[in-house]
Amino acid sequence: MSLTDLPLGFRDEEQRRRVQHALHDRLADDRDQQECRYLMRLFWQLSMPYEEVTVEELRHHVGRDKLLVVEAMIRAIRTSPERIDAWVAAVEVGFDAVEDRGSARGAG
Fold first, then answer.
1. Per residue in 44-57, pLDDT tens?
2. Contact between residue 59 and residue 28 where contact means Cβ atoms under 8 Å apart
3. 3-class SS of residue 10
């Protein structure tokens, strides 16, 4: 299933950025490099008209719990801006901020 429709589902650029930040800051943990790589491809998919990642790739590379959250995000984007806001709020409450170990190593 294609995800190229996702960039069109946001109320505005600010809402798209909030979803991208939730993906990056709460879900894309670089301790699992493969999962992180595909979540970051999804991050870029949210603003790209071409295919960056597929649902099938996400199902293969993203763990079950996060995959459920990602699928809820996709449904929210395809439903309404209000559902997107609710998704962001749920992720911000349900997931701790991820420590970016790559940046932390480079700063030390």
1. 999 999 999 999 99
2. no
3. coil
